[in-house]
């Protein structure tokens, strides 16, 4: 698979012509900055000496015209820097968003929004006053050369002052860099902890943990704020010193110039011009010191963006594949959690044909949800492959794969949008497809009962809905636009009896349409419509085969099943099942009970054996009830 070499530097390289144009404007602007000192020198040395009003008018007209051009160019340069910042944002935000999403999937979700904030930091610096100072800084030697041409003594004074100011700028870098970097780390950790706190506020408040969480957050925040304030204090001190030094430098140039005027080595006009030029020469350094905090922040953000895009580059263009028929093949697949080392799944292999329904069961932490993530391409396989229609699901263009895959995760998240927008996966809405998906999921009537029907806004995360309503709308979203492959991870965790029946009918209809379904559930009632069962234990396949074979393979109910809603049965069903179990009991159920503790132990043993013998009969009754639910 080919990939682009994603790099934040690509964003700047694409804007190279804009930077060159800005540098060209800066050259003209800095040349025009010499208009004022030259004008002052001419007024003092020519106009006042010659007492010529015409010369004054001519010089003033030329100077005003050039300064108007200077003002226009300064404004154009400012607008260009704003456009450069915005263009950088537009070019890099999409790959950064994609890289953050990929990092969340493959390396954990820590600092999920930090990359987008880094883009904002770089853009804000580019559109501020700081870059102009950096474009002007290369012209400092030109101004110093002009002062040397006026008089070497004044040039020496100017160079000494410039060296001191540059030293202050370097000191600002040395003092602030480490502190601001550490402050950014602490503030980022505090923000991440605050995000976790808000997402878990219900549990925190219920268990009285809000105060302790706030204390932890404040501790991290204040550590970052303290370092940031310390760096800002030093920058403020150095900025004040730089302003004072600039004024002292201008005073020194005036004093030196006056001394030279007294000995007739230069004119008064040259003295005034030198004072103005030296102020202009050191102005960029002073501005750089003032904007150093923003520069350090932007540089750090830029470095982080480079690392992010280098680690998670955008995939190259892939040929669009045709709609898969629904064949699913898992070839010796293994999975590792993002940021983890130990495999959660090992050696998983199976194949499914279109229209086949397979249940995945197993105890907690056996890897069922991890398998679901592998099947839909959310997590890449650490070894082996998962294929849909013959193509590795993690190699599909995700925009294409998503059209053919439906997925209900264990933790359902809906977007702050309308019901129809959520069902349509935030894309272009086809009303008929939305209604068809809702009907198939058995949620159409429920949606119509909402205040605004399909136009109802459900709030962030679907907070306006109950857990069962969110789960059923998520099922409709998974079924939108007739996918070829559907993975349901605990789709009935929050459903009631009616919801279970609707889900069973939905699975039967998906099977009839030839849609491949993987169902993960702890409830025995969900096994009614499956063709095969895969049992996971400790991340490996413990059993795989036809449903009845797997159910009958064990002599007792699977211990990791949760109690499920009872499907309505005919009055004689339980009795018939019990009779069947009794008929299979070689010991009958009679016999004289023992006495004392031995009788109690014998009764407990008999109850356990009866429950074990009843399991096959229960499986047969479950199948009969499923047929009644679907056909009725």
Topology:
Layout lengths: L7 H6 L2 H17 L2 H16 L2 H54 L7 H13 L3 H7 L3 H11 L1 H48 L1 H6 L3 H53 L5 H23 L1 H20 L16 E9 L6 E10 L4 E5 L6 H8 L7 E6 L2 E2 L5 H7 E4 L10 H5 L7 H10 L3 H5 L18 H13 L5 E5 L7 H16 L3 E5 L11 E6 L2 E7 H7 L19 H11 L12 H36 L1
Parallel strand pairs: 3-8, 3-9, 6-7, 7-8
Antiparallel strand pairs: 1-2, 1-4, 4-5, 9-10
Helix pairs in contact: 2-4, 3-4, 3-11, 4-5, 4-12, 5-12, 6-11, 7-8, 7-11, 8-10, 8-11, 8-12, 10-11, 16-18, 21-22
Description:
There is one protein chain. The chain is an alpha/beta fold and 632 residues long. The protein folds into three domains: 304 residues, ABC transporter transmembrane region fold; 226 residues, Rossmann fold (3-Layer(aba) Sandwich), CATH 3.40.50; 59 residues, no CATH class. The strands form two sheets. Strands 6-7-8-3-9-10 form a six-stranded mixed beta sheet, with helices on both faces. It has a four-stranded antiparallel beta sheet with strand order 2-1-4-5, covered by helices on one side. The longest helix has 54 residues. The chain starts with 7 loop residues before the first helix and ends with a helix.
Q: In a few lines, what is going on in this structure?
A:
It is a multi-pass membrane protein. This protein has 632 residues and is of the alpha/beta class. The protein has helices at 8-13, 16-32, 35-50, 53-106, 114-126, 130-136, 140-150, 152-199, 201-206, 210-262, 268-290, 292-311, 368-375, 398-404, 419-423, 431-440, 444-448, 467-479, 497-512, 547-553, 573-583, 596-631, and strands at 328-336, 343-352, 357-361, 383-388, 391-392, 405-408, 485-489, 516-520, 532-537, 540-546.
């Amino acid at each position: 698979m080919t990939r682009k070499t994603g790099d934040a530097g690509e964003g700047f390289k694409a804007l190279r012509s804009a930077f060159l144009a800005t540098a060209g404007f800066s050259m003209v602007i800095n040349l025009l900055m010499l208009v004022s000192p030259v004008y002052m020198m001419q007024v003092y040395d020519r106009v006042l000496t010659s007492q010529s009003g015409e010369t004054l008018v001519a010089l003033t007209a030329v100077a005003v015209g050039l300064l108007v051009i200077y003002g226009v160019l300064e404004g154009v340069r400012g607008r260009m820097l704003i456009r450069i910042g915005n263009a950088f944002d537009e070019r890099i935000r999409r790959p950064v968003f994609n890289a953050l999403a990929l990092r969340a999937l493959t390396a954990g979700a820590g600092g999920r929004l930090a990359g987008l904030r880094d883009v904002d930091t770089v853009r804000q610096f580019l559109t501020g006053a700081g870059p102009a100072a950096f474009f002007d800084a290369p012209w400092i030697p030109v101004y110093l050369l002009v002062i040397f041409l006026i008089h070497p003594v004044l040039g020496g004074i100017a160079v000494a002052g410039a060296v001191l100011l540059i030293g202050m700028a370097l000191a600002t870098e040395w003092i602030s860099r480490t502190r601001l970097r550490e402050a950014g780390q602490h503030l980022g950790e505090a923000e991440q902890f605050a995000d976790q706190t808000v997402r878990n506020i219900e549990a925190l408040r219920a268990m009285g943990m809000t105060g302790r969480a706030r204390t932890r957050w404040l501790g991290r925040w204040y550590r970052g704020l303290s370092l940031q304030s310390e760096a800002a204090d030093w920058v403020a001190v150095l900025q004040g010193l730089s302003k004072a030094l600039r004024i002292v430098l201008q005073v020194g140039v005036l004093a030196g110039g006056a001394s030279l005027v007294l000995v007739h080595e230069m004119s008064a006009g040259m003295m005034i011009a030198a004072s103005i030029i030296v102020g202009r020469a050191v102005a960029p350094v002073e501005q750089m010191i003032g904007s150093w905090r923003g520069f350090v922040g932007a540089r750090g953000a830029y470095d982080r963006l480079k690392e992010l895009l280098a680690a998670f580059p955008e995939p190259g263009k892939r040929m669009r594949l045709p709609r898969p028929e629904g064949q699913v093949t898992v070839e010796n697949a293994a999975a590792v959690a993002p940021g983890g080392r130990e495999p959660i799944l090992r050696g998983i292999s199976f194949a499914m044909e279109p229209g086949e329904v397979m249940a995945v069961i197993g105890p907690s932490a056996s890897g069922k949800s991890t398998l679901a993530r592998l099947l839909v391409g959310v997590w890449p396989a650490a070894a082996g492959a998962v294929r849909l229609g013959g193509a590795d699901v993690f190699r599909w263009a995700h925009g294409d794969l998503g059209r053919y895959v439906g997925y209900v995760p264990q933790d359902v998240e809906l977007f702050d949008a309308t019901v129809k927008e959520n069902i349509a996966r935030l894309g272009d809405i086809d009303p008929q497809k939305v209604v068809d998906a809702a009907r198939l999921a058995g949620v159409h009537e429920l949606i119509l009962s909402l205040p605004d029907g399909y136009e109802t806004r459900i709030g962030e995360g679907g907070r306006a809905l109950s857990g069962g309503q969110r789960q059923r709308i998520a099922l409709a979203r998974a079924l939108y636009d007739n996918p070829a492959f559907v993975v349901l991870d605990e789709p009935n965790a929050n459903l009631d009896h009616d919801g279970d029946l609707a889900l069973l009918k939905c699975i039967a209809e998906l099977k009839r349409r030839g849609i491949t379904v993987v169902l993960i559930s702890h409830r025995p009632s969900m096994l009614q419509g499956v063709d095969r069962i895969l049992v996971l234990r400790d991340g490996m396949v413990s059993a795989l085969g036809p449903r009845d074979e797997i159910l009958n393979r064990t002599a007792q109910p699977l211990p990791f099943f949760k109690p499920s809603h009872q499907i309505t049965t005919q009055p004689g069903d339980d009795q018939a099942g019990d009779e069947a179990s009794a008929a299979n009991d070689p010991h009958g159920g009679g016999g004289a009970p023992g006495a004392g503790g031995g009788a109690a132990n014998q009764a407990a043993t008999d109850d356990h054996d009866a429950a074990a013998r009843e399991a096959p009969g229960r499986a047969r009754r479950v199948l009969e009830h499923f047929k009644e639910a679907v056909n009725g």
